[in-house]
């Protein structure tokens, strides 16, 4: 019985309201709930003005190639056309750094990029630069040695250099880089040094 009376009172309340609002209906602003001011969020990147190029002219891109690992690289190539391929970028980096092209892998947004891709496939319409990270297979050992110069290198050589502390420090640093353990690298260096001294 209670449900019937509730339904009846609810329907009566609905009937008392107008079915349709009149065209000149105005809501009383005093009945609105208080709202705080709403500020539009800022865009992460400001909109850049679109540059119009002359007919037949291509936009130029600047390319940044970085490597935080061994060997560390930070190479900037400016005035690259959008049709420049990734293989061309590799060749330019190889000329500046001495890293062979076949030992180099370019990553864009942490994903490997095939040599056949062009820069226009990787950048958006309004972007003027593209950044690659480079991964060198074999690390610093993959770098081609510099061309031999006519001048003879100065300083100790042969058995003399084995008597210098710089040689053993360099060996310790190399071993530490390869085994990635300072303690083991120190033990190996001491072993090599002791064996050499026992031999001489």
Mind explaining what this structure looks like?
With 200 residues, this protein is α+β, with helices and mostly antiparallel strands. The chain contains 4 helices and 5 strands. A 5-stranded mixed β-sheet has the order 2-1-5-3-4, covered by helices on one side. A hairpin with a 2-residue loop joins strand 3 and strand 4. Helix 3 crosses helix 4. The longest helix is centred in the C-terminal third of the chain and has 18 residues. It starts with a helix and ends with a helix. 8% of the residues are buried. About 2% of the residues have low confidence.
Percent of residues in helices comes to 25-40%
Oligomer: single chain
The percent range for strand residues is 15-25%
Which word captures the global form? elongated
Give the total of beta strands.
5
Short description:
By secondary structure, this protein is of the alpha+beta class. It has four helices and five strands; from the N terminus they run αββαβββαα.
Q: Which features would summarize this protein structure in a list?
A:
about 200 residues, alpha+beta, 5-stranded mixed sheet, 5 strands
List the SSEs and their pairings.
Blueprint (H helix, E strand, L loop, with lengths): L1 H15 L44 E7 L5 E8 L5 H12 L6 E5 L2 E2 L16 E8 L28 H15 L2 H18 L1
Helix pairs in contact: 3-4
